[in-house]
UniProtKB/TrEMBL annotation:
UniProt xrefs under InterPro entries: MRPP3_PIN_dom, PRORP_C, TPR-like_helical_dom_sf
Annotated source species: Xylocopa violacea
Protein name: Mitochondrial ribonuclease P catalytic subunit
Organism phylogeny: Eukaryota, Metazoa, Ecdysozoa, Arthropoda, Hexapoda
One protein family per Pfam: PRORP
Swiss-Prot/TrEMBL keywords: Hydrolase, Magnesium, Metal-binding, Mitochondrion, Nuclease, Transit peptide, tRNA processing, Zinc
Length: 498
């Protein structure tokens, strides 16, 4: 219990500091500090104890919370890339019995993580001693500290301890240690621990976020180690990106393009216009789900999404009536979210859609609301489709999905509701991706024209057509969570160019 309480205290301290340190005042302090101590910052290895003390005093006078002054100084060193200054300042603290806090120790270790120079044996021993010290004082660490520990432990070849940090963290917290995982995966690939590296690569990809470029860079270097396995290994990664809906960054795609071109592929950035790649001219029609994938998604949608939620959005009598109605009348070819279409466009557009499907001999179900019955001419459409009206308070998109999945794999839906909330309600990343793929080939929207054939602008997924992989990549730091609907920001990887 005591270590847990200590840990709680640690987290609160860090959070308070976190809000504080990124204030304007912090940046102002950094600027004035850089002027005041330019000599120290430029020559950090030959600084007297008195000068370090003056620096500390100066920071304390400028900072309203003197108890965090050392973290403050190290953070400044990190932000402004004065890594050796921070490292030497910490050593001054330690050798003069200032008793650095865990936050200060963590920041000191972070400086080693950022340093590109080789770490001396003495510094490696020091890092390990500090790690042993803080783990003897605390059983658990927050995500920031855990990430730092994992990274710096990999840097000094203590990867088994790094794994222990991850395992301890994951026993108490569901957050993904993305930075730590990435460093560990890269380290394991670089040192030839391939099975273990793959285990952590898969685990990180299954979060739906994936590791950072650092891990993918190490992965492609591993692919290069045996030229005859290059294609097979790279396709393993691309298939994982497809299965778990991962989008790489522009930076890593650029690196992959260079390496693939050096290995006989033809890879380049491209654009996708009207679902066609401007480079290889192949059509990117989203492949439908396999039978097994569809069965899995159908079960999840009916169990997890609909049966679990529908009682909260309608009344039991209405559900019973609806289920009997569907069982007696299915299968349908097209399910239309009637209210959604009528409210977005004119009633005549809605009627034109029904006429269009009638001409194509499609069996159509319209889910509407009771109040739609009051629309003049609604009764004239009864020969074109089946209608089921739900209470005005019912959530009709669940009715649409129920009818679609009860009708089978060939059924399409027409709705301008992109159903994002349902996608996210499927709390498994694989199901989430399957739902997206299903939408890509079964979910149509009305764009106001008489023919409702515009496919939903859904988030794009990496895909393979013959020998070409088409990969949507993202720009920016938070790439994995960002939706990708643009025609640019694609890469075409042709594995067998002629
Ligand atoms: Zn292409």
């Amino acid at each position: 219990m005591i270590p847990y309480l200590r840990q709680t205290l640690l987290l609160r301290t860090r959070n308070t500091r976190k809000c504080h340190i990124y204030s304007k005042r912090f940046y102002k302090f950094c600027t004035t500090w850089e002027k005041q101590f330019a000599n120290v910052l430029n020559h950090p290895t030959d600084v007297t104890k008195e000068t370090w003390e003056n620096m500390r005093k100066y920071a304390m006078e400028s900072e309203e919370k003197p108890q965090i002054v050392d973290s403050y100084i190290l953070l400044m060193c990190k932000q402004a890339n004065y890594l050796d200054v921070g490292i030497n300042y910490y050593k001054f603290l330690e050798s003069n019995n200032y008793n650095p806090t865990v936050s200060t120790i963590a920041l000191y270790l972070k400086l080693y993580d950022l340093k590109n120079d080789p770490i001396t044996k003495a510094d490696m021993d020091h890092i390990l001693n500090l790690y042993n010290y803080i783990t003897s004082q605390y059983q658990l660490f927050d995500s920031t500290t855990s990430d730092i520990l994992v990274r710096v432990l990999c840097k000094i070849d203590e990867w088994r301890e790094a794994i222990k940090v991850i395992e301890k963290f994951e026993m108490m917290d569901n957050n993904f240690l993305r930075s730590g995982y990435s460093a560990l995966i890269a380290y394991l690939y670089n040192c030839g621990e391939i099975d273990l590296a793959y285990k952590y690569l898969i685990a990180s990809i299954k979060t739906g976020i994936g590791p950072t470029d650092e891990a993918y860079s190490a992965y492609i270097m591993y692919c290069l180690k045996e030229r005859d396995k290059f294609k097979e290994r790279l396709e393993i990664l691309f298939n994982l990106w497809n299965k778990y809906d991962i989008k790489p960054t522009k930076n890593i795609i650029g690196k992959f393009i260079t390496i693939c071109n050096n290995n006989g592929w033809s890879a380049r950035l491209t654009t996708i216009t009207s679902l066609t790649c401007s480079t290889c001219k192949k059509s990117l029609i989203q492949a439908d789900l396999t039978k097994d994938e569809y069965i899995r998604l159908e079960k999840a949608v009916l169990d997890k999404l609909i049966m679990k939620n529908i009682y909260s959005v309608t009344d039991p009598h209405e559900i019973k009536t609806y289920i009997n109605f569907i069982n007696n009348r299915k299968p349908y070819d097209v399910i239309i979210d009637g209210l959604n279409i009528v409210s977005k466009y004119k009633f005549c557009t809605f009627a034109e859609h029904l006429i269009y499907y009638k001409k194509k001999n499609k069996k159509v179900l319209v889910i509407g609301r009771f109040h739609m019955n009051k629309i003049a001419n609604m009764k004239n459409l009864q020969d074109l489709a089946d209608f089921f009206f739900v209470h005005n308070w019912s959530q009709d998109d669940l009715f649409v999905l129920y009818a679609a999945f009860k009708s089978g794999q060939n059924t399409i839906i027409l709705s301008n509701d992109l159903m994002r909330q349902h996608k996210f309600a499927l709390d498994n990343i694989e199901l989430h991706t399957l739902f997206k793929k299903w939408q890509a080939s079964h979910h149509y929207i009305s764009n106001g024209c008489s023919i409702p054939d515009s496919r939903v602008q859904i988030d794009s997924i990496i895909q393979k057509q013959d020998n070409c992989w088409h990969i949507p990549y993202m720009c920016g730091h938070f790439a994995p969570q960002t939706k990708h609907t643009s025609t640019s920001n694609w890469a075409c990887f042709n594995m067998c160019p002629q």
